[in-house]
Amino acid sequence: MMRAAYYTEPGPAQAVLKVGEQPTPLPAPGEVLVRVRTSGVNPSDWKSRKFGFRTPTGQVTIPHSDGAGIIESVGAGVPAARVGERVWIWNGQWKRASGTAAEYIALPSTQAVTMPDSLDYAAGACLGIPALTALQAVRLANVGAGDTVLVAGGAGGVGHYAIQFAKFRNLRVLATVSTAEKAQHAQHAGADAVINYREEDVGARVRALTDGRGVDAILEVDLTANAKLIPDVLRPHGTVVVYGVGGADTTIPARWMLGSSASVKFFLIYDLTDADRTAVLAEINPLLQENRLKHEIGLRLPLSEVAVAHDTVENGSVIGHVVLDIADQ
Questions:
Q1: Is residue 139 located within the same domain as residue 245?
Q2: I need a labelling partner for 293 at 20 to 30 A (CA). Which of 124, 139, 233, 320 fits?
């Protein structure tokens, strides 16, 4: 048996999340068994738990897609040499009941990516959703050196990484934030200019910063809230890359976008094609090896405080990633 966080019905974190004993999984053919050291908490985790997405009532669900740890054993077909590898995990709980908020997880070998020795476990637990989403968004923007991108929510987990990946491509980066503290956080990631959308006219500021031209691409965290800003900030023939929405339906400025030949690209990080997944992993691994990425851990808690971690992410009260320590480091 292993220690794990779990729930069997949707609802508030404090009411439904429990920590207790669950069966230790065994690696199936093609899988590895990872002893989890850290588990990353993402917005999708509290939303799935609270609203019951993909969670049949009565099913034991161990949350969280992201994590890091050490491969303890392997299933048939996986090289025995992988035992002992330090790895970070992606899609740990995608279309599966058992995620990384446990002492062990068994999952396909390809979803346990070798970590460089310089990368600590807490940082490894931030990569699967936030970093890979950021990198795929920058890739889909299809912009080149010298172009300008607007990162919506530049102080968020994805936004902070997106700023860095954009700067690695020699892009000019504008970022929207909601507080002075978040502005500093986005600047720390490398943003060339930050715009406090609660205090400034975003469209006017973007036009001023781009000599009236607009940005070449928007990396959008919430199309539902921000679609109305597109005509004020995007240049003709520009691209909006959408990785998040705040509601089931969104109204877009269709007439303006048609007249401007603008493009909108949606993607879900859990459901990348094999080619896209291979490409993002091939790009991020050297950056990790070279220790070029900044990983901002806002809060670390023990597994027993999983409900607090979920509420913290839901409330947005911490800048940086929220990580659970599953085992002694």
A1: yes
A2: 233
Mean pLDDT, all residues of the chain: 96
Tokens 């940082």 sit on residue: 123
Residue 243 confidence (pLDDT): 98
Q: Is residue 141 part of a domain?
A: yes
Q: pLDDT, tens digit, for every residue of 219-228?
A: 999 999 999 9
Residues 141 and 104 in one domain: no
Dig out the tokens for 238 from the structure: 């520009």
In degrees and rounded to multiples of 5, residue 97 shows phi and psi of: -85, -20
Distance CA 295, CA 303 (A): 21
286 has pLDDT over 60: yes
Residue 85 lies in a domain: yes
**204 Cβ partners below 8 Å, 6+ apart?**
232
How sure is the predictor about 190, in pLDDT bands with cuts at 50, 70 and 90?
A: very high
Of 97, 81, 137, 79, nearest in space to 5 by CA: 97
Has this prediction a pTM greater than 0.85?
Answer: yes
Helical H segments across the chain, by residue range: 13-16, 43-51, 121-124, 132-141, 157-168, 180-189, 202-209, 223-226, 230-233, 254-259, 274-289, 306-315
Range of the domain at 236: 129-270
- Assign residue 73 the CATH number of its domain: 3.90.180.10
Question: Measured in whole angstroms, how far is the alpha carbon of residue 62 from the centre of its chain?
Answer: 19
How large is the average pLDDT for residues 47-74?
90
Residues 111, 31 contacting (CB under 8 angstroms): no
Question: Is there a single domain that holds both residue 107 and residue 6?
Answer: yes
How many other C-beta atoms are found inside a 10 Å radius of the C-beta of residue 130? Answer: 25
Do 232 and 196 share a structural domain?
Answer: yes
> Which of 25, 105, 108 is CA-nearest to residue 69?
105
The residues that bridge with 323 in the sheet, in sequence order, are 40, 300
Query: Is residue 145 within a helix (H) or strand (E), and if so which, with residue range?
Result: none
